[in-house]
Amino acid sequence: MNNPGVLNFFTQASNHLGVYLVLGALLFAIGFFGFCRHRTLVGMLVSGELILSGASLNFVAFGRFLAADPVTGQAFALFIMGIAAAEAAIVLSIMLAVYRNYRTIQTRDLKEMEG
Amino acid sequence: MTIDLSPEKVYPLVSALLFAGVAGVTLLGALVAAASRRLVYSVSGLALSFVGLAGLYLYLQSPFLALMQILIYIGAVCIVIMFAIMLADVVEEKSARSRALPAAIAAFLVAAMLAFALIALIGRTAWMPKAVRVNAGAVQDIGRALLTRFGFAFELISVVLLLAILGALVVARTGRGNNRE
To answer: What value does the mean pLDDT take over residues B43-49?
Structure first.
């Protein structure tokens, strides 16, 4: 009796809102973990992109399942993509400037303003 | 006992297997990106995770978003990050490994608690779907909405992108000027 229920959920998993929300939450948590753990600016940028993608997966899932207008979620995800591209460009140029001045991008060594 | 191989039985199973694979690729790539010590692996994991995410967008009936995900994120963002790694001659993260382990454990615990709380919250919320849908969410609808309802935000995004490009150029050039003096 249990087995058909599990199989049924498995075949219907892509039609459940909760599955996508859990995936988005896991992406967010993994990105948060990486953000705390990485010791370089590039690693933190990569983890930040993971957090953003978790958020945008949530938006698209809500737009697909709950919103009256399914365009809203997709448009919001597109805007997130634009913002993320701008953010990556700025962060990378800052990183290159920092590297030119300090010869390192390890966050541990960037402590000129440390009290 | 024969196995039923009619399309009505097989297609949902294949689709579900594909969905599980896509979700697994997303999480696996994210884990590699977050946990890898070498930055090149980290960015490769990010690209893998974005491929999986594009598959998830396909399952969410937004093929345009899946295409943009591959085009912008993998084709532009990941490649640019890779260029920056090569330009900055990044030393790998091996400094202060003795103090890194407790911090990593603490980060893992906090992230696990965060995930647990979010998933519990998702589980106990009753989501209410709307009864009506005003359109199908196709590419034509997205284009129409972007140029009418979201027109102002669309133009603002283009200004933000232009300023980001100019700002990136200015920031990168200023450092070079200081270095030459």
So the answer is: 94
A–B CB contacts, 8 A cutoff, strictly below: 253
Distance CA A16, CA B70 (A): 24
Is the Cβ pair A37, B35 closer than 8 Å?
Answer: yes
DSSP state letter for B75: I
Residue B100 vs residue B155, higher pLDDT: B155
Collect all residues of chain A within an 8 Å Cβ-Cβ radius of residue B112: 29
Range of lowest pLDDT (A40-49, A77-86, B80-89):
B80-89
Q: Per-domain residue ranges for chain B?
A: 11-92, 136-181
Q: Which residue of A has its CA nearest to B145?
A: A71
Structure tokens at B102: 């407790």
List the domain boundaries for chain A: 16-101
d(CA A62, CA A74): 10
Which of B26, B27, B82, B146 to mutate to probe the A interface, most A CBs <10 Å? Answer: B26
pLDDT over 90 for what percent of chain A? Answer: 38
For A16-101, CATH gives: 1.10.287.3510
Interface membership of B20 toward A (CB under 8 Å):
yes
Q: Are B36 and B42 in contact (CB under 8 A)?
A: yes
Question: And the tokens for A70?
Answer: 């399914």
Domain B11-92 CATH class label? mainly alpha
Q: Beta-carbon neighbour count of residue A51 at 10 Å?
A: 17
pTM of the model: 0.86
